[in-house]
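Co-fold these.
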Amino acid sequence: MSLRPTLDFLLYDWLDAESLSQRERFSDHSRETFDAVLDTCERIAREKYAPANRIVDTQEPHFDGEKVVLPQATHDAHKAFVESGMMSAAQDYDIGGMQLPYTLQAAANSFFAMASVSIGSNMLTSGNANLLMVHGTEMQKEVFAKNEFSGRWAGTMCLSEPQAGSSLSDVATRAVPDGDGYQGDPLGPRYRLTGNKMWISAGDHELTENIVHIVLAKIPDANGKLVPGTRGISLFIVPKWLVNVENPHPGPLPQAGEGEAGSVKVTLGSRNDVALAGLNHKLGWRGTTNTLLNFGEGKYPVDGKAGAVGYLVGEPGKGLHCMFHMMNEARIGVGTAATMLGMAGYHASLDYAKTRPQGRLVKKAEQPGTAVAKDSASPQVRIIEHADVRRMLLAQKAYCEGALALELYCARLVDEQKTGNAQAADDARLLLEVLTPIAKSWPSEWCLEANSLAIQVHGGYGYTRDFPVEQYWRDNRLNMIHEGTHGIQAADLLGRKVLMEKGRGLQLLGGRIAETIGHAAKVPALAAHARALDAAWQRIGSATQAAWSTGDPADALANAVPYMQAFGHTVLAWIWLDVARRALEIDADKARAVTAGKIGATDYFFHYELPKIGAWLNVVESRDPTCTALPEDAF
Amino acid sequence: MSLRPTLDFLLYDWLDAESLSQRERFSDHSRETFDAVLDTCERIAREKYAPANRIVDTQEPHFDGEKVVLPQATHDAHKAFVESGMMSAAQDYDIGGMQLPYTLQAAANSFFAMASVSIGSNMLTSGNANLLMVHGTEMQKEVFAKNEFSGRWAGTMCLSEPQAGSSLSDVATRAVPDGDGYQGDPLGPRYRLTGNKMWISAGDHELTENIVHIVLAKIPDANGKLVPGTRGISLFIVPKWLVNVENPHPGPLPQAGEGEAGSVKVTLGSRNDVALAGLNHKLGWRGTTNTLLNFGEGKYPVDGKAGAVGYLVGEPGKGLHCMFHMMNEARIGVGTAATMLGMAGYHASLDYAKTRPQGRLVKKAEQPGTAVAKDSASPQVRIIEHADVRRMLLAQKAYCEGALALELYCARLVDEQKTGNAQAADDARLLLEVLTPIAKSWPSEWCLEANSLAIQVHGGYGYTRDFPVEQYWRDNRLNMIHEGTHGIQAADLLGRKVLMEKGRGLQLLGGRIAETIGHAAKVPALAAHARALDAAWQRIGSATQAAWSTGDPADALANAVPYMQAFGHTVLAWIWLDVARRALEIDADKARAVTAGKIGATDYFFHYELPKIGAWLNVVESRDPTCTALPEDAF
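Predicted complex below.
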């Protein structure tokens, strides 16, 4: 079973992605070039990623005393991805990119996430390089970003520390100027960093000849003190291996695998003072190394002294600001990963349900309403014929295809933000602010639930490692944690996003929802759903006001997660209604199975899921203090 | 942090377990002897089970070509359990038991489930032996049951087959009479069995010198055909090693480890024709071997021919009837296991939350309602101070302590059924019929959710194998599958239990609920909850009627799982209200932390959980056909 019909419907029929090729930046593109990209990624995912998914789970990364060892399959997958050019797909032609819309890049990446979510950490590398393209100097782009886009080097994001996970303001890694001439380094102002960074994905490996760490650290003030809070955070490039730059004249991006960036000749120098302090052994997502790194502990002294050499990116104290630039795309990436893990489980359990015979259908017994009969002499039926298995499959479909629609909608907003007219771009920016916490959190909760249902459909077999669904479930459990936990997303949504610019983001979203309701209300099959969505959105609005009615964030945010759950379900109901509206616009008679499927999933979502928001909003509206008020010793 | 205060409250303050000692069967017992049992089990669980829990997860059972190898820790835990006498704790004195109430046995077993759920498979052994005590011949009890109670041998239940998991009517294992004199064997009518049994827990190991399999099989009719359906199922004892019986005069149970059962001398003979065909490699619950066994494939011929020797238990064709006898206790056992895994995660995450510093509390910013401020210069707070962490902890408490209360309530009903007066015993029987599907399913769903919250409280650390919570979550995922899946439980509840005896079970439960409501309505702090419970129960009643209003089980059962979820939440609301009522009866001023905790969890349950039933019952009441009606190609 292929993902392609679903993707094609969402991209072309629903989001009209083809129209992006009318924009100047994408004017060389067409449905044909888009399809070629999808074909290539689908093929690489099928050939290099999917067959390795169990291998990377069982052959967990290990440290042999000198280097981190990954399975050969990981090297092969990395090579195939780099050769596809996808690492820089969205970049400008003049640095070797394809100027592909982000919408298509996100769609193409969904194949990889579905086939083996953890084998590649390319999102980190391209995210890292994208950040440098925005905030780095020309030389930093030339030396670091371009070598990342070409796949010669890999990238990381070093934010968390053992004592500072969700609380980045407590970052304690120190960066001090490296000698008197520190400002004259061609790679940027040169500092020495000391500190420990935790949860660093792809923090050490041999997939590439070098690893470019982007590190949050604080520059001490004149008294040697670190500025409290996030204001003090600066951003540094800290390569695993120091680099020598000769003939520093920036030029076009080299082809993958070449040793030179344009006319700037870059060679590796000695080891920088970044040491692997440990590998984290995870529940899932094992294809990606996850590390504790010690910066500047003196294991690899540079010029005879301890301290990791790092080059400042952007202004001192503006580090988090630079990072936030990347946040939306990273969070859409996590949401897409969660979605595609859910989708993988949905497809696996659907295949299983269509072929596994077990049990028989219930039928009316002679005494109505008193008993249930089964005809035990007849052959067993396939389990997809059982009502409860169908419920579990349709729930998965509604969660995962709905989530994919949301992620692609958000990706489309990213393109709008970058290439739309001023008003459209600004609207897209603001909509993304509001929708991103949902795009990140909703799939990480509900597509995980989908994975649990996929196990359940398989029965005992689903609980064994002979079937892939248990791994999907384990892998997916990460997504509620990394890139901002569920609690952080909820506080961001209710504490910041719905308030910002005097609630204009919320109003904008309300406008889009009203538009869908307006269309759907005229379609008999969808009119009831349109009314239900209207009521749900009204209630989100009043709950938002009720939460903030005392003006005290402690009251408002006491139930931020239930608020986000209700908000997310309402957004998904809107997405489904809009998908259904469009499906019926194209195929009013539901002649195509894909149309019937979209309408079925929409009906499921409105009947089984949307009504859940009442329970969540109750506690938001009353600013329920049960949890906050309980004395600690009563837990 | 100890489980004991919670157990003591539930057992003594709430269920008045002490009063059981006024019954003849338990008249030697007292609070003192009950406490001694709890002390012993708590100690063994702490010393022998808890330290081995990660060991049994990482040192998964493996087959060395000859035998199944388990960690030494498993052998040690088994030995300590056997020596405690808990295997036969509920049995009569005259066969070496303690005549302990089942309520106390269930409470005592909760320590083991919490410390290491999978290390012991004793529930299977005692369940197997209990079944033989009811349905076996004197000689079968003497030879098999007594050697299981003494811990000399272990037991299994062989029900499922690769093609017959949930659908037991499709069992295809054949049993044919073993020669002309087959009826004269002192161990029972002797048959030869051939077939494959899947998912057999503790199906092979070296913990004991022999393993007593209880096997479902069908005896072919005169034409060699198997009777379709469950009517054709018979029950057989199939020992791994054949046994020789000398001097067959039944007498008292031997002490653990002795080689004789009373005056019946039992020695091991040759290997029976039961072969290990494979070990299942599971997501969790790895301390217990799980096997595919081939019966009668000829690997170990007996008297020169293939076929596993088995001895008929009870009447031919009544096998499933005999098994059902054990079903309630087995399902309460699964519910308790799920509950205690949840509890283990709750305690671990509560400890973590009390000590882990991270972040700061939100406070009112200068512009009310527009922003949130934090004082980044102040020290970080412990995460238990954050509202969302408190919500996740209180949810776990409400799920797990509520589930434990339900399991103990059901265990108390088992005692009532066995030792109460005729009316009370019959009421208890019928209440158990209705409550057992909830006791099995509810904790397996919601204490699994608790385990997910425990991971979330730990953040990234919870996703690593350095903390125990990820294992609890993996272990717990089994409980929605084994001993009747969620779907099977739901069909049992709505398709059989609420209808049986013209709905008398439902009425009985309604009476108990009304009693609690009557008491709670008079307590100001609980009056609103009493009204909410009353409304919920009314709605369960009307939803039950609406589901069955067409008399067609296909309509009624289309949404059996949402029905069971709503039913379960309503039952738990009742349990919590009754616990809260009792807590305030003892300590009206909430002077004790335990009282405040019970009231807090009750408030949580009524505010955050009970309102969820609306969404579930909507689709039940409308007999929503969305899932059943969708064409297969539209999935």
